[in-house]
Design goal:
This protein is of the alpha/beta class. The chain has 10 helices and 8 strands. 34% of the residues lie in helices and 17% in strands. Strand 1 and strand 2 form a beta hairpin.
Length: 288
């Protein structure tokens, strides 16, 4: 049988690699964990919810300000394969950073198939531009902003790093002090042949415009690329090819799996101030 992508001969083989829910045990409830942690964050940390950054109802963000003035900032982009979930599901990512004096911003965006991946990328860029221009009004330091995301949010993090910030937004070309991508998708081609295609509706143009593994540019932002050691080989490959592309442009990146994590638990580190992820973000932002 002729492969449909690399060495994969069927949608079932691709789905086995790219549908992380298939690997969950009968008692695993990742969304229940996220919901509980999100509620804990919103009830224990001062927050400004549903702050608009664009004209549509989906274009909002949630701000969890640090208790110190002129604080460094972490902007988080949620996952859900561009077609599910929203910012409120991931308020819990503020739990680990708030005690370290870091403001957290969680971005919301419209979802496929109501909008395209191109439009989601535009919205996320608009949201981060809003943060860079306005976070000082919420006690944040616009010169010390990190961006990061999980799964589709990892992809969108990479797309933020690809942005022509000076040409398109009038901002510094490399406006982020740090970036971290968790279990991201950097080559979108295999997803055209997956269970996701009816919802995300990829075509050759969308794939070409939105596959950062093949369009990395020189960038001064230090980047940490991570994924769960229990994830499929394709998630490891996706991370590796993006790391290789990033370094081929003379950029700084760290490639490191989280050995005991799966696709969902890999971002639990953002809930723990003592985790390597939170400590790296804290030290990198403070030295910027």
């Amino acid at each position: 049988m002729r492969p449909i992508y690399r060495n994969f001969e069927s949608q079932a083989q691709i789905d086995a690699q790219y549908n992380p829910s298939l690997a969950l045990g009968p008692n695993d409830q990742p969304m229940a964990h996220f919901a509980s942690q999100a509620e804990r964050a919103r009830s224990s940390i001062r927050c400004a919810l549903n702050v608009p950054y664009g004209p549509t109802l989906a274009e909002t963000l949630d701000i969890f300000p640090a208790n110190v003035p002129n604080a460094p900032v972490f902007v988080f982009i949620h996952g859900g394969y561009w077609r599910a979930l929203d910012s409120k599901d991931f308020s819990g990512v503020a739990l680990g950073l708030h005690p370290l004096g870091i403001t957290t911003v969680v971005i919301n965006y419209a979802l496929c198939p109501f909008v395209t991946v191109d439009e989601i990328t535009r919205q996320v860029r608009a949201a981060t531009a809003w943060v860079l221009r306005n976070i000082d009004q919420h006690g944040g330091d616009p010169s010390r902003v990190a961006v990061g995301g999980h799964s589709a949010g990892g992809h969108l993090t990479a797309m933020c790093l690809q942005t022509a910030w000076t040409r398109d937004y009038g901002l510094p070309q490399d406006p982020f002090a740090a970036a971290i991508a968790f279990s991201g998708l950097y080559d979108l081609e295999p997803l055209r042949y997956s269970y996701l295609q009816p919802m995300i509706q990829l075509d050759a143009g969308v794939v070409q415009r939105n596959s950062p593994a093949f369009m990395a540019r020189p960038c001064r932002t230090p980047l940490w690329i991570t994924w769960g050691g229990q994830e499929s080989p394709e998630f490891a490959r996706q991370s590796q090819i993006y790391h290789d592309a990033w370094q081929a442009n003379g950029n700084t990146s760290t490639l490191q799996a989280q050995a005991d994590a799966n696709h969902f638990t890999v971002i639990h580190t953002l809930e723990d101030s003592a985790s390597a992820v939170c400590q790296w973000l804290s030290s990198t932002l403070r030295s910027a």
